[in-house]
Structure formats: C-alpha cells, structure tokens
Design goal:
The chain has 11 helices and 12 strands. With 270 residues, the protein is an alpha/beta fold. Strands 1, 2, 3, 4, 5, 6, 7, 8, 9, 10, 11 and 12 form a 12-stranded mixed beta sheet that branches.
Length: 270
C-alpha cells in the first residue's frame, strides 16, 4: 500500500472514541481483557487470490497479507494500544471454526444464521451481494440459466455464499472447494460451469480469466461484520464501539477505497 494511503488510514483513527483525546482503552477495561487476553490482538482473516471486503490477498513483493480487513485490524490494534498478530485462513468457514478453538480474538466475516450460532457479530461495516461467474465459452447468460440440471456450480466450502446458493438453486447442487485457488483450477480445467462468490471477489477473479462474465443480479445479499468468539459480551461491546466510530468517521470507507472495494459501507447503528 502506498505510504500516503497508509498515513491517511492511520489519520482516520483520530475519529475513534477516546483517540481524539490521545487515550486508549486501559487494562482495567473488562472489554479489553476479554477481547485480547494474551496482551496482543490476534485477528482472524481469510486470504485468497482475489480481494473483497472479507478476503485479503498476499502482497506480491513481501508475501504478507494485505486488504481492507488487515487495515481495519491494524487500526483496531492501534486504538487498543496492542500489537497485531494475523491468523490466516483459506475461507470464512475456516475462520469461523478457528474461533471455536480460541485461535483468534477478533475477526471480520460475512454474516449468516449458521455462523451466528458459532460467533457473536458486531454491526456490519459493509454490504455485499453474491452472484455467479461463468467462463468465456459458457452459454449461460442469466441467474436462471445457472439453475438447471447438470450445471456444475462451485463455491468455497462452508461459507455464507455457498449455503445461500444451495438454498437458491432448485435443479442443481453447488459443490464446495477448499479455496479460491482450487476453484480457479476447476474452471481452467473445464470441471466447473459457474462460480458462486461475492461480486467483488468475482470482479477480481474475472481479471484472471479472460472473457469470463459476472452475471447481473444476485442470489444473496448480506453484510460483512466484526466478530468475537461466543459469549464475550464485553469484548463485543468494545468491538462495536470501534466499528461504529470507524463507519461514522470515514475509516471504513478509506480502508475499502485503498483496496479497490467500491461497494457500500453499512449504515451506522444508533
């Protein structure tokens, strides 16, 4: 990320609670102890070849994760006055399951009912839609044409998107892949007819598949939100305070723009 962009992101933290007075949450705050019991912020993120409001990517020069979630996590750690430790996974499903094993303290992930049974969500910071991508030689032109017997639909296993596609499709059943890299291989080898992902991820994927098309419309609309493992109400309150201030003050918009994410910031709550 350019240094000027990073300075702008860090400057935006001045709108956060207490940071305007040069203050941070202290160790006496129950929320801070509950959120980061090890004294560092362990942030769970998904990393893939394509970027979105959820997905981070690998920096070509350094190999380190970069993306909107990384920038938001860095701003959160700065506000808390804690070092940031990234915990990297191949899918939102892996991030969810890792929360149950206490591998991370906070994460950013798509919201759905199945996931909400395993983690507690703060208000969303981003709104997204999911649709399909088809390869260049595909005769499929619409969402309805995807829902036909014999059409091989793939998505990332154990994610909001593939569960939503399974509910929307009546005549075919999507197959879960372990990662976006695996999906790319399925498409390139002719073993898949359509990919179900968030629109931003598909726009990025289309750049790597000349002639491919992202279909108009959507089969699912939801949000991406910060999360904590179940039962950490004080930590959730602290995370909610952070993300709401970050939305109102423009930090979320800056993080999205810096990573080429054009979709809408979720409305502030309250």
């Amino acid at each position: 990320m350019p240094q000027t962009t990073r300075r702008a992101l860090l400057a935006a933290t001045a709108v956060l609670p207490m940071a305007a007075q040069g203050q941070h949450p202290t160790q006496e705050w129950p929320g801070l102890r509950e959120l980061a019991p090890t004294g560092r912020l362990r942030l769970g993120i998904g990393v893939a070849p394509v970027s979105s409001a959820f997905w981070a990517t690998r920096d070509a020069a350094t190999g380190q994760p970069r993306g909107a979630t990384v920038d938001l996590g860095r701003a959160l750690a700065q506000w808390l006055g804690l070092p940031l430790e990234l915990q990297v996974y191949n899918s939102s499903g892996e991030v969810t399951e890792a929360g149950g094993r206490a591998e991370w303290d906070a994460a950013f992930m798509p919201v759905d009912a199945e996931r909400a049974a395993k983690v507690d969500f703060a208000p969303p910071y981003y709104l997204f839609t999911s649709t399909y991508l088809v390869p260049a030689d595909s005769p499929i032109r619409s969402l309805g044409e995807v829902d036909r017997a014999g059409v091989r639909v793939v998505g990332v296993a154990n994610t909001t998107t593939i569960r939503s596609a399974a509910r929307a499709l009546r005549n075919t059943t999507p197959t879960g892949a372990g990662s976006v890299d695996e999906i790319l291989e399925l498409l390139r080898s002719g073993r898949a007819d359509a990919v179900a992902l968030g629109r931003e991820s598909l726009d990025s994927l289309a750049e790597r598949l000349p002639g491919s098309r992202v279909l108009d419309g959507h089969f699912h609309a939801s949000g991406v939100a910060p999360a904590v493992p179940k039962g950490r109400s004080a930590a959730l309150a602290l995370l909610t305070e952070f993300i709401e201030a970050a939305k109102r003050g423009g930090l979320v918009r800056r993080a999205l723009d810096a990573n080429g994410i054009r979709g809408p910031v979720a409305p502030a709550v309250g």
